[in-house]
Amino acid sequence: AATLFIVATPIGNLGDLSPRALETLREVALVCAEDTRHTRQLLAHFGIERPLLALHQHNEDDQAALLVERMRGGDSIALVSDAGTPLVSDPGFRLVRAARAAGIKVSPVPGACAAIAALSVAGLPSDRFVFEGFMPAKASGRRERLAKLALEPRTLIFYESAHRIVESLQDMVSAFGEQRPAVLARELTKLFETVLDGTLGELLRQVSDDGNQRKGEFVLMVEGAGDDADGKIIEGRRLYAKLAEHLP
Ligand code: SAM
């Protein structure tokens, strides 16, 4: 019977595409991709040529119904995103839901995921964690989100882009206090892979001072709030207010 395969692709190092991912991508009738040009290049690198179809947030609902019909007709389909695991801060949830609702088998071909790769090297408590993905782009929305997380005891995992990393660290210092331990993982599996650890205050200073530390892709992880978080947050806010007086 037809299957919808959810296939993870590398987050940088092409060596991380698994043999089973290659085999699956070779065998399906169609590969659905977030960005077909990007995926065509990836497949070409491995000598794979398959029909590609763009599936992104703007057409996913419409396409899902057509793709379900196609799988009902017997064609297996693979879903990939630009990097890492589909559905994790990437399209795919609607297609998977539609396929499952139609009784079609949905099967994972697991592999890289930036959040899990980052957590695995952070040295932060990893028995329980919360994936927060991308924060809202607007400062007000971001601060609101962070305020709600200030007392969260589990390790927090965020995705962040180069142009917002400093602002986000600033907002975290004010929401969680500058003493909260954190780890910043940058460019994992790539040439400039860097994992910085320290307090939020230290990370903010390092990233502000060194332009190279602001380049690339980031996973930002923050240790959960301890039992005395209330006090620390109040202290952190006080420090931040003092610091803010000296900022332009
Ligand atoms: N689906 C992907 C996954 O499984 O990780 C995530 C896609 S999301 C659109 C892209 C974000 O993932 C980036 O902004 C960054 O926060 C994170 N990311 C992706 N590749 C990374 C890498 N090599 N190093 C650090 N973070 C990365």
UniProtKB/TrEMBL annotation:
It catalyses: cytidine(1402) in 16S rRNA + S-adenosyl-L-methionine = 2'-O-methylcytidine(1402) in 16S rRNA + S-adenosyl-L-homocysteine + H(+). PANTHER family: RIBOSOMAL RNA SMALL SUBUNIT METHYLTRANSFERASE I. SUPFAM superfamilies: Tetrapyrrole methylase. Catalyzes the 2'-O-methylation of the ribose of cytidine 1402 (C1402) in 16S rRNA. GO terms for molecular function: rRNA (cytosine-2'-O-)-methyltransferase activity. InterPro entries: 4pyrrol_Mease, 4pyrrol_Methylase_sf, 4pyrrole_Mease_sub1, 4pyrrole_Mease_sub2, rRNA_ssu_MeTfrase_I, RsmI_HTH, SAM_MeTrfase_RsmI_CS. Pfam families: RsmI_C (PF23016), TP_methylase (PF00590). Keywords: Cytoplasm, Methyltransferase, rRNA processing, S-adenosyl-L-methionine, Transferase. Belongs to the methyltransferase superfamily. RsmI family. Its EC number is 2.1.1.198. It is found in: Cytoplasm. One of its GO terms (cellular component) is cytoplasm. Residues 3-203 form the Tetrapyrrole methylase domain. HAMAP family: 16SrRNA_methyltr_I (MF_01877). The lineage of its organism: Bacteria, Pseudomonadati, Pseudomonadota, Gammaproteobacteria, Lysobacterales. Gene3D superfamilies: Cobalt-precorrin-4 Transmethylase, Domain 1, Methyltransferase, Cobalt-precorrin-4 Transmethylase, Domain 2. This is Ribosomal RNA small subunit methyltransferase I. The gene is rsmI.
